[in-house]
Design a protein that fits this description.
Blueprint: H1 2-13, H2 15-31, H3 49-57, H4 60-86, H5 92-107, H6 109-118, H7 124-150, H8 162-173, H9 175-185, H10 190-211
Helix pairs in contact: 2-4, 2-5, 4-6, 4-10, 5-7, 6-7, 7-8, 7-9, 7-10, 9-10
């Protein structure tokens, strides 16, 4: 009974942090939808069914950017949730590290808008480089959060092993070189850069699905 009371107390210590973080993720993922605009006909004209359909098809970069960023933020939220499965306490460095992560999460809608607007235009390379670049920073933010956890071991649940923490950190590092590659590739082939970013969230989705059958392992995607 005493251990149950202790566990409940530790859970409550991070409850406000998780609630606040969930709210930030929710706002960031919701803001993405504002890039989806209803097509407007030229002044003095109206759309027929065919021309409206064509106008909707021309907005395909907006749909692609929306789906990619929505899925990526969702994976980021799942990763954040996985970290808080291990963490039961908090301190000031941890709060600032979590705040840094939330800062970059809220910035994701901006490069998403850039890609949506410029993917099929001459400035596509720069737009896609900024887009992939924001995920480089996101990955760094996740690693800063995990570094804080590793160096403040008392924040972790007592039953979390060192091997589990090391594996989590290793998984978090996987995305960094790939997002860096996507950033560089953007200047050579913007479409390939976005494709790499999309492929990463698909990979992490399958990784989390596979991980759901192994409750003792925790994967972090960022």
């Amino acid at each position: 009974m005493s251990s149950e009371k202790r566990e409940t107390s530790l859970e409550k210590e991070t409850g406000r942090i998780e609630a606040f973080s969930d709210g930030v993720f929710a706002v960031a993922i919701t803001l993405l939808v504002f890039d989806l605009q209803v097509p407007q006909p030229p002044a003095g004209e109206t759309f027929s069914g065919a021309t409206l359909g064509l106008a909707l098809l021309k907005q395909w970069p907006f749909y692609l950017a929306f789906i990619t960023s929505f899925a990526t933020i969702l994976i980021m939220w799942i990763s954040h949730h996985s970290i808080f499965k291990m963490v039961y306490k908090s301190n000031t460095p941890f709060l600032f590290a979590n705040g840094f992560l939330l800062l970059v999460v809220t910035a994701v809608p901006f490069p998403t808008s850039l890609v949506a607007e410029y993917l099929n235009k001459p400035a596509a390379a720069m737009a896609c480089a900024v887009y992939a670049g924001i995920f480089v920073v996101v990955n760094i933010a996740y690693n800063v959060l995990l570094w804080t956890v590793r160096h403040h071991r008392h924040l972790l649940r007592p039953d979390v092993s060192d091997a589990q923490v090391k594996m989590t950190t290793r998984n978090a590092l996987l995305g960094l070189p790939i997002y860096l590659i996507a950033t560089v590739v953007a200047f050579l082939n913007p479409y390939l850069s976005v494709g790499i970013c999309s492929a990463l969230w698909v990979f992490w989705a399958f990784a989390f699905y596979e991980d759901s059958h192994q409750p003792n392992d925790i994967k972090i995607a960022s």
